[in-house]
Design a protein that fits this description.
single chain; 214 residues; mainly beta; twelve-stranded mixed β-sheet
């Protein structure tokens, strides 16, 4: 079963990672995981919503997993980080002790410790186009010539972002090793707003926190 404690452990490294991505305004990104081995009707394949404001505020919303007993909401408003189970109204809260905000929202499902090229760890939600442009990605039309593949290769690894022609909005993101896809997400929605709603990044209300920092 997935637990809030595990989710909190996964959030902790975010505040010490590279923070080259610091986009203005607010991004609302909805993705679905279509990686090999994930059944189409499974919880892991259900859409997830990510809000991002700069490099210090993040909100992650998952759908309810009633079988697992959790409906997870994650909020980072640096230096505070909360992970909440909306089903039983409990949560965890930690405060990052880093000297500055360096929150990272990695877009790929692997880490350098798993063999991923270290430079690709800086591919983040909200800065996908900038990452591929800065690394001078190769652009390849799809078979129907209606979309573009932006590709980077490093040894056996390849990362591909697909966009519509003349668009900077991601449609899909894929990671391959030895020509086999190991991770793939589909962007269901990609919105940018000039105004940031502070309520999205406030401490969740009505939650019983399990630590003294509540």
């Amino acid at each position: 079963m997935r637990t809030i404690l595990l989710a909190l452990a996964m959030l902790m490294p975010l505040a010490s990672a590279n923070a080259d991505c610091d986009p203005p305004g607010l991004f609302r990104i909805v993705t679905a995981n279509g990686s090999p081995g994930i059944p189409k009707d499974s919880f892991a394949s259900r859409p997830k919503v990510t809000y991002r404001a700069g490099n210090g505020r993040v909100r992650g919303e998952e759908m309810a997993d009633t079988a697992g007993g959790i409906h997870q909401l994650s909020v980072i408003n640096w230096p505070d980080m909360w992970v909440v189970n909306l089903l039983d109204k409990t949560g965890e809260h930690v405060v990052d002790d880093s000297p500055k905000s360096d929150v990272t929202i990695a877009a790929l499902g692997l880490e350098p410790s798993e063999g991923l090229p270290s430079a690709w760890a800086s591919l983040e939600f909200g800065c996908e186009w900038e990452f591929f442009a800065a690394n001078k990605a190769k652009q390849v039309p799809t078979e129907k010539h209606d979309m573009i593949k932006h590709q980077l290769t490093d040894g056996a690894w390849r990362v591909t972002m697909i966009t519509a022609k003349d668009s900077q909005v991601p449609w899909a993101l894929m990671l391959s090793r030895d020509n086999n896809v190991v991770y793939a997400i589909r962007y269901l929605s990609y919105e940018h707003r000039d105004q940031v709603d502070p309520a999205l990044f406030a401490k969740p209300d009505g939650i019983r926190f399990k630590d003294p920092l509540k």
